[in-house]
Amino acid sequence: MSENFQYTYSAEKQSEIDAIRRKYLPQEEQENKMEQLRKLDASLTTTALIVAMAVGIGNTLVFGVGMCCFLVWKLWALGAVVCVIGVIGMLIAPWLYRKLVEKRRQKIAPEILRLTEELSQK
Q: In angstroms, what CA-CA distances link 119 with 55, 103, 108?
């Protein structure tokens, strides 16, 4: 009687099985709260950064158009006005970032403080 033992193992397959299994296991409440705290903290600057970068890049392009008016099309007055608008917009971007972060911080501060209190007491 010949008994053959056959075993195959795939790390990728096992990690996929574990990932699916974790979805259906009850998660600890503290881990969820810690993850929620991390997400809130990370979301603080994300929106502000996107808006400020868009304003800064947009106004850099406006400044570039003003420089084109100066150098390529020889429209001196229009070029000066467009360049000044672009520079003012670029100078507003960091200020806008700080204001948006400050506003968002005030909005989510109670939730973050509540979560930190709960996590530190356990």
A: 38, 25, 17
Collect all residues with Cβ–Cβ distance below 8 Å to 37 and sequence separation of at least 6: 112, 115, 116, 119
Q: Which two tokens stand for residue 72?
A: 């390529």
Residue with tokens 């397959």: 13
Q: What is the Cα–Cα distance from 7 to 18, expressed in whole angstroms?
A: 19
Q: Which two tokens stand for residue 113?
A: 């403080």
Taking only the tens place, the pLDDT of each residue in 45-91 is 999 999 999 999 999 999 999 999 999 999 999 999 999 999 999 99
Residue matched to tokens 């809130």: 40
* Ranges of each domain in the chain: 42-121
Biggest CA-to-CA distance, the chain: 99
Distance between CA atoms of residues 33 and 119, nearest Å: 8
Q: Which two tokens stand for residue 5?
A: 């033992």
Contact (CB, 8 A) for 80 and 62: no
Question: What predicted TM-score, i.e. pTM, was given to this entire model?
Answer: 0.68
